[in-house]
Amino acid sequence: SLILASGGWSPLSSDRYQWLEVDLGGRTRITAVATQGRYGSSDWQTAYLLMFSDTGHNWKQYRQEGSIGAFAGNSNADSVVQHKLQHQVIARYVRLIPLNWNPNGRIGLRLETYGCPYNSDVLSFNGQSSLLYRLTPRPRQMSSESISLKFKTLKNSGILLHAEGQNGHSLTLELEKGKLQLLIRKGKSLSPDIRYLVTLGSLLDDQHWHHVAVEHHSNHLKLTVDKSTEWQKDTHLTAADILVLLYFIVSACLCALSPVQMILGAQQGFSYRSFYGCLENPVYNGLNLVDLAKQKDQRVTVKGNVTFSCSEPVFVAMTFTGPQSFLRLPRRIDQSSLGISVGLQFRTWNKAGLLLTFELPNREGRVWLYLSKARTHLQIHKSGRAPLELNAGSALNDGQWHSVDLISAGGRLTITVDGDEGASAHASPSFLITTGGHIFFGGCPAEENSQECLNPFKAFQGCVRLLTVDNRPLDLIKVQQRLIGNYSHLQIDMCGIIDRCSPSHCEHGGSCSQSWSTFHCNCSGTGYSGATCHSSIYEQSCEAYKHKGNISGYYYIDVDSSGPIKPQLLYCNMTEDNTWMVIHHNNTDLTRVQPSPEVNQHVVHFEYASDEEQLTAIISLSEHCEQEVAYHCRKSRLLTSPEGSPLSWWVGGPGVGQMHTHWGGAPPGSQQCACSLQDNCVDSRYHCNCDADSNEWTNDSGLLTHKETLPVRSLVLGDIRRHGSESTYKVGPLRCHGDKNVWNAAFFDKETSYLHFPTLHGELSADISFLFKTTSSSGVFLENLGIKDFIRIELNSSNEVLFSFDVGNGPLEVSVKAGSPLNDNRWHRIQAERNVKEASLRLDELPAVTQEAPADGHIHLQLNSQLFIGGTASRQKGFRGCIRSLQLNGVTLDLEERAKITPGVQAGCPGHCSSYGSLCQNQGRCVERPTSFSCDCSSSAYTGPFCNKEVSASFKSETSVTYAFKEQMVNELNRSSSASSSFPSSIYSDITLKAENVSLSFRTSQSPALLLYVSSYHREYFAVLLSKPVLTNYLSVGVYLKAHFEGKPFIFCQIDQNPKEDFNLTSGVEFNGIRSLVLGRVHDSEGLDLDLAQIASLGFTGCLSAVLFNSISPLKVALLHPKTSPVTVTGPLIQSICGFTSANLSHATETTHHLSGKRPLVNAIRSDSALIGGVIAVVIFVTVSALAIMARFLYRRKCTCQRQEVKTVKPEDNPELPFRSRITSQNGPTENQKEYFI
């Protein structure tokens, strides 16, 4: 120890290539280091690296959190800075490399290490040796077995451990390409059934010690490699196989046998690859096998040359750390030699990088050997000659050691990758290839004026070893001592490669790829997104899909969002007020019981489309779940026998479930059916209809609604074999509704109020999502603090959200600015995520903003305070408003329950229509609920949860739908009239409508045709017709009115989504005393002129949908509420989807048009105005008694309305209204039909 001593160490030169090395005299368990500046000086280091080694070569850099290499040093010469190592190191040599030092002084330090002696037992294997351990099988099976050891090797393949049992079954721990694989072989055949269970670790051939443990508990296997652990549940193993895995007791071979050596009991000819390296402290169930071998225990057999020390060769490697790294070797001494040969081994993750380059003699050209697309390329440029290029190898960026040899001799040029097992390329250039100067490896010096080295490619990042020039090995230690060549930014006598994909930070099955400095996650097909595939792209429930405007259908549901449960495809039924998640199983049909003569019971098991953990989460998430059960019987009792014991039962609930003897509609434990509770069983002496044992068919059916008993997993029916017994059963799908998370909300009344929850645990990744609404311009939504770390989300201003945190690298901020104020008292959604790679923040539907994490920085978020919601521990300005559906890593915080016991915070938050009212379409009205909203479609021609489902019907020529208006209906239609208007009580009174708004969709091949007809008690009418002149189809709206009214009424026309056109009339009109509205055939044609009466008598053949007259939907009530509405239907009226089909048929040649006549706000039109809204495809005409006003609009195929001259005409004077033209009618739609939406 030099701490507190006088003096200290200070090198002659102060640069990054100096180090202080300490020999501890033997392998030591090192736990901490401390540094101090040089006594009485201005010399101290401010940052440094730590290296460890067992041999004084092949150093390994100590990294904090797996990536951080630098330690913070001193700020003066006297204070002591100690660092406790996060994970202990076992080594003999310690090397400290200063990175930065006092700019006003030099490198200077005193160093102290802390630790204790380390004792170990070591075995060395040379590839032809082995150790076998045998025990006779124990009579009692043990509950667990374990074996642990450490190993080090330079070979990337070989078997560490092999255990065999009876029947030739075996378990093997094998090193394959630097990774450990745990696999099971079953059978003695030459081609046994091999299953790979677990693969862990990477770069394990680095000649450093690695810890391995294999544990077996019950039917689980646990493999641990260094700090990574993985459990494998082997559900395919039988009881006998489990005993085989316990058969480590019988035969365990540590390290591989020689190629001809066999495991006892194995099939002849089955061999293993040898292991070359060292094992340390192999312990099986507490027994040290090396001790047993030293004691020559009869249970241990040593074969071959096994030594009790670790002899290892010395291979000095160097690491090219970045773009500035290079090695320059001097030109060859023997210039008379013809040709050149260069060889090396490298390992890297990069697909591209320069391996070496040199000039040809006399600067006549240049040679480059480089990696591109993970292949080696040799490129030679010589003046006056065509470029020469060779390539060999593939996938050379896999992190494994690869050799490459460049040989030019005897007029032949060869490049070889991975020796005889690899690939090679040849050429015979007509010119000599040798070096005319220095050879540069990895890159070029940074000097701008240097022409000796040119690198048009990327610099190499990776490790190089076994470098030879002209078959002479290069001594890299002399290079390190600057006795040979020159270098910059190299780490010599170590390979600093890191596998950033082991362990993988890619979640949810995302595949990891990497370069030297970073990694990338491919999330394709996982259902998750983000830099680490952390955040789910799916919603957590059908309720969440519904309130994004979706309709019924199959959706992927991710019940725990970013949690471990996989998304599942479920059916969402959104046709009712409640939104149902439907989980089917393998038999939801009514099934007849087929008794078997061998059994007395009928047993059926139900397999659900969801996994067990998904089912459990769905049931827990939902407010209500139910499952229908039904039993149809004839002389087949259900629950109770005459003796009182249960004849049948079902099993349900979480896990394996429990037995239940109640039936649908009855409470658990009652052993009753629904009829017993309703007091209507067929026999009052029994609690179920079927238990009456009747000769007549009857049934017991009902809903199971207690969530703790669901789902139904199996059904056992007992009374099935008596003579004359018959029965059928049905178990419906599991149905759940109500997402307890979506509407869970709290209102923060004051800026000083807050809720607190346990500490957020998101060390490596964390996602936070919630909705908020407020009228405040700023406030903290969420905050959690640590000693130095923190995480916070806040409303920074009225249009900016700020996400900030610190994991030890300094505060990092991500902000999103909205284009409009966020304090508009409407719901806004925030999604924030932080992982080891980046941080992201998304607001509403705006693009996510991301901020990359510092390279090789701290990655663990360490928090220890309570999580504050709506306020802060640091007493900053809290949040005033509502927070809803707050989720941390997919887990919803119950804001409402916590708010009930917290002053200043209220549970729940009303006012959803301000944000979601736009989802109610087609004049639907948003209705507030305590924890949701709904759409009232009573004033809409549509139905469905968002009033977006068309109501359509198919009409025949004899079909007639008549809606009779009553006084209260007229009052509703005229609710926009002035308050001073008064109407007589008689329905025959002179009732006047101030405006008519008509819209409908139709599809027909009939013309002319009457689409809609409205009559009055004053022999006035309103009609929408389809006429057919000689050249073009057109629509007509005819209105026959008596009264004269002051003002300037007008009509406007809108076809599909085309611009609306207005048409002013020359005088005012009123529509008085409306009586009825007719769709289809008009039976009462009194008061109609002959032409219109003729068309009305033909009826309508085709489809009508979404018919709306002001707020009345006659077609909708006729189809859905015929018994409670003043509607009369004659002839066939068949509900159909004809309103949708034409737009979806890709083979049809029809055109679909949307037409609507929408009026301005009535309040903007004074009481002396009369508005007639007509939706016309081609021609609208208005006929007025005494004043015949004509407004004509010509409809072309492009859906344009063309204004014509408005003049007074008589119907017979209008040549474009050929009511007497030939009338055509067909039975149904054809390819030439057109569909119009009015």
TrEMBL record:
It is found in: Membrane. GO terms for cellular component: membrane. Residues 1-116 form the F5/8 type C domain. The gene is LOC116323537. This is Contactin associated protein like 3. The keyword Lipid biosynthesis does not apply. Belongs to the neurexin family. Residues 533-585 form the Fibrinogen C-terminal domain. It is a single-pass type I membrane protein. Residues 1212-1238 are annotated as: Disordered. Keywords: Disulfide bond, EGF-like domain, Membrane, Repeat, Signal, Transmembrane, Transmembrane helix. The keyword Nucleotidyltransferase does not apply.
